[in-house]
Design brief:
Number of domains: 1
Strand content: under 5%
Largest sheet: none
Mean pLDDT: 83
Bound molecules: zinc ion
Structural class: mainly alpha
Helix content: 55-70%
Radius of gyration: 18 Å
Length: 183
């Protein structure tokens, strides 16, 4: 099943997946539904839900500009020792994590095992364990201590931002395909 179809399962998006009479969601529909969004969100929708790998480079490029802009607007850059270059690298990882939605290796993302007991490895949310802070710090090019002090909260804020993209895109697609209101 594609990421897109998974996304439209009732469990994740609160949408009954109606079969019969409703066309399945295609990349063209994703593109058409999302064309009015910002370039960043549009590209995110194409890469994540229309599996358009050719747009990935542009998405990362646009995302780096957006992260740097966010750092200025939110005044992150005014913190002592804060590096724009490091938050931009952290933004790459936050974006990648949001794009791939890694599933728990124990239950395959179901959150339960065949015996219907909740999966202990993921606590039932079906997601893979987050990347450890040490690894995030290394990738961003800072020490673990610096990561904890200056970057981990921004990293989380970026992931929340991308989760907001998911919601916005889902609304647009539901509206365009199923005629639901955009509210
Ligand atoms: Zn699990």
């Amino acid at each position: 099943m594609s990421e897109l179809l998974k996304f439209f399962q009732p469990r994740s998006a609160g949408l009954e997946f109606i079969v019969g009479g409703i066309p399945s969601v295609t990349p063209e529909m994703v593109a058409a539904a999302c064309h009015g969004l910002t370039r960043q969100v549009y590209l995110y929708a194409l890469v994540k839900f229309a599996l358009d790998g050719r747009s990935a480079n542009e998405l990362y490029r646009v995302n780096r500009d957006a992260v740097a802009h966010m750092a200025r607007v939110k005044r992150w850059a005014e913190q002592e020792g804060f590096s724009l270059e490091c938050i931009v690298r952290a933004g790459d990882i936050a974006l990648r994590e949001s794009l791939v939605c890694r599933h728990c290796g124990h239950c395959g993302g179901a959150g339960v095992h065949n015996n219907q007991r909740q999966c202990k490895a993921c606590g039932g949310n079906g997601r893979a364990k987050p990347v450890p802070n040490d690894a995030l710090a290394r990738y961003a090019g800072v020490t673990s201590k610096q990561w904890g002090m200056l970057y981990s909260d921004k990293f989380e804020a970026l992931k929340v931002e991308y989760a907001g993209f998911d919601d916005l895109i889902a609304r647009k697609i539901r509206k365009s395909i199923f005629g639901e209101s955009d509210g």
